[in-house]
Amino acid sequence: MWAMLQTLNDDTPKYRDRVASPRFAIRPNSLNIVFNRSEPLDYGQYVQHLESFLHQYNDSEQAKNDLCMAGQYWEQDEEPQKKVCQFRRSLVQRCSGMEDTTFGYANGQPCVIVKMNRIIGLKPSGDPYINCTSKSEKPLQMQYFPNEGTIDRMYFPYYGKKTHEGYVQPLVAVKLLLKKEDYNSELIVERKVEGSNLKNNDERDKFLGRVTFRVLVTE
C-alpha cells in the first residue's frame, strides 16, 4: 500500500480516462426558465444568480490575471504554480449585466450563459464553439457572446484546483432575441459544442458536450 501511495500526485489524478469530454451547465441554474417580463420579482431570481455567478469575472477581479495569446494552448507543465488567463465579464457584452442590469429579462430577451466543467489536462482539438438550435416549431433568433460562440484554446489546459488557483472557465453567452409572438409558448433550446473532438451526442449522458433547457416568457 505504501509503495502505491508514492505513485500518486497530490495535484493531478492518476487515472483520468473515465471522462474524455466535459459536461455542460447553464446559468441561471435552471433548465426551466419561466418568467413574466413585466414582473421584476418574477425574474429577479435569475438576475441575482447571473450577477452572483459573474462576480468572479468582474474586470477588477480579472485584472490580476494574465493576458494570453489567443488561439494557442497555454501549456505550463514545468511551472510549479500556474498562471491564469483573463476572462473578463465584459467579453460577454450585452449579457454581462454591465449595461443592462437585468440581463435582458426585463425586455423579454433573456441571456443564458453556458460553461463547461473543468477537466484536468483537457486540450480540445480544432476551434470549439457553442451552437444553439431551437427544438421547437418556431425558429429563434439568437446573438452569441463572444462572437460566434467561440471557446478560445488559450484557456486550456487546466492543471487542477491546487496548482491553478484562481482559474475560471471560459464562457459563452447567448441572448435570445424573442419577439412578442414568441411569448406565451414554451421554447426548447439545445446548446452543443461543435468544431472539435469534444463529444456531444452520447445518449447515456444528456449533459456531455451539450445542454437543453426550456424558456417560457409572458407579459
TrEMBL record:
Transmembrane segment boundaries: none
Membrane topology: Single-pass type II membrane protein
The UniProt record lists the keyword Ribosomal protein: no
Keywords annotated in UniProt: Cell membrane, Disulfide bond, Glycoprotein, Ion transport, Membrane, Potassium, Potassium transport, Signal-anchor, Sodium, Sodium transport, Sodium/potassium transport, Transmembrane, Transmembrane helix, Transport
Pfam families noted in UniProt: Na_K-ATPase (PF00287)
Localization: Cell membrane; Membrane
Gene3D superfamilies listed in its UniProt record: Na, k-atpase alpha subunit (2.60.40.1660)
Family label: Belongs to the X(+)/potassium ATPases subunit beta family.
Function in brief: This is the non-catalytic component of the active enzyme, which catalyzes the hydrolysis of ATP coupled with the exchange of Na(+) and K(+) ions across the plasma membrane.
NCBIfam families: Na_K_ATPase_bet (TIGR01107)
Protein name: Sodium/potassium-transporting ATPase subunit beta
